Amino acid sequence: MKTLSRILGGVVVLIVAVLVAVVAVLKSMDFNPYRGLIADHVKAATGRELVIAGPLDLEISLTPSLAVESVTFANAPWGARKDMIVLKRLAAEVQLMPLLKGEVRVNRLVLSGLDVLLEVDGRGQTNWDLAPPGGVAARPGAPQGPLPLVNKVDVRDLRLAYRDARDGTTLDLAVESFTLEGKDAESPLAVTLKASHNGRPVAASGQFGSLKTLAEANARFPVRLAIATSGLKASIEGHVVEPRAPKEFDFKASVNGDNIAAVAALLQPALTAVRAPAAGPLEAAFRIKGKGRVYAIEEIAASAGQSDLAGSARVSLAGRVPEISAALRSRRLDLKELFPAAKEPPAAPGLLSGRPAPPGDGRVFPAGPLPLDALRIANADIGYKIEAVVLPGGVTVRDVDAKGALKDGRLALPVELTAAGGRVNGEATLDGSRIPAALALRLDGANVDWGRLLADTGMTEMVWDSKAEAAIDLKGSGRSVREIMASLEGEAKVVLGPGRIGDKYLDLAGADVFTQIVTALNPFAKSDEFTALGCAVARFKVAGGVAETHDGIALETGKMIVTGGGRIDFRTEALDLAFKPEARQGFGLGLGNVVGLVRIEGTLGNPSYGLDPLAVVTGTVGAVTGAVGTVTGGLSAIARSLFEDRGTTEVSPCQVALGRPRPRSQPPQTETRSPPPPPGRKDEGLGGAVRGLGEELGRGLKGLLGR
To answer: Which of 105, 448, 537, 538 minimizes the number of CB atoms within 10 Å of its CB?
Structure first.
């Protein structure tokens, strides 16, 4: 027995001696010559160059450690820079005994100074698709054998950039610190992150499933994360089946923030350039599921400021093009709050001044090609019902039922809504499956209380008891908005029925100019608080891109009659419109012969408006013929026809404008409440009225045209 013990003891000593000798030899070896061998194996497997410029150190023990410095991995030949990955230092501590059995168990993996660029070119090719020369790349997401078991990952100073040339999407993530740690292969992984995304600080913490679950086939890998950035908090909880080659996932998410702009800035800085909504606070929750190539967003419940959204959506990528469907609803959608209007600079003063010409060629309608290709990248069927919508101007419409159907490049947008008690329905269609594209626009509305609509914009006590109707039917075709407008055909008509107009708004619209002249000629004339509206009509026929009307503009009130005509040339955007006012109360003189024609000329981008002061003076002294010759110089035949005296006609101008003449009804009776004259007001006579005419009319026209 003693002999056997001595033999066994000697064997153990020999083995230990051999191991010590091997360790000593390994420690004395220089592994740097193997850097080239490692690089050759990587190139054979991926087709890319791997360069290890720094030292390669191996520390031999029961927990061997490996350290490598200054590593670069080449980018795709078409990439934006030479290297896809740049690594300053990598260090790993590995368990020896599992390694002898073919298992890789890493106690700790440390990465520092890692710079990664991920790119997608215009054809959808990615720079992380790796294939050996003459070989075939492994299918992305497919399991590649057993995973190494890592107890802790520690990343410092990470830079991750993503660029997609197809749509310009960019992402820049700078990680100050990232840790992923689990006690063993069966324990959950705790994760912490401190980083900045596109310049915004981001912190995250949470828990993932175990490494064992990650490696198992068809296993559910749980995910729970909480993310916080400036003005925004989000959480996500759920699972993904086999995350190495995802087959199915199901997550619930919630977002809370100051406003929608905080979300847009986090997702993509370019979204803030289009004035992302600033309304808040923001609250959103939804459930997102995916199986195969079909994805669904369910249980949507979101609100931003006074607006809310609910419903569901579905996306299928299984067909030739994506198929999108959605059913959405809102109790309230406040576009005025979500997209506040930018402040416009004040208009330049002067009777005949127009706004400054816009940059470029001065045209309103853009000449750039329409993005018709976007109409063919997906098919969609979307429905959206809203109880109340506040439009940017402040008008509220209700019971909105809007749909959107996109099929093989053909887009249809039908909508029905209630506006101020009247029902409006319309439809816009754009056929992008043909070149040039075809546009059709139809709108019908009746019994709309336009006084209520104006009150929503803050113009209270402007109109009472007047209902409006509209009918628009236009078609055109072209490769750009400018081409479509230049080809328009159809008709547009707006009719306002009997009611009352507040006189303080008639002042703004320029009508009180004429009343002031009558008052100056007749000191006993009185001002009214409102004026009876008989009717108002604007009707244009459009052919070959030109909207034209001979006498399709008319306004009848208890004080005056205004008739108008002219043309709007959408091909050149030129304006040639004229309006003739006639007094209806206070004095028998035909006031149209006093003030002549009100003219709107120029272009849509730079209109000018006013009247010829000489026509006023000559008309006042009775030189009507001279006024006509002065004011109508250069006008079209349509505008000149307005100067024909219609004071004795028996046909209502509104009926003429509508194209169905009938005997004129009795002028509407003006209900008056006569307040005392304003303090300090003096009767300056006709001369004072004429001197103030230019200023008053200019102010009135600016109010009428929104300048």
So the answer is: 538
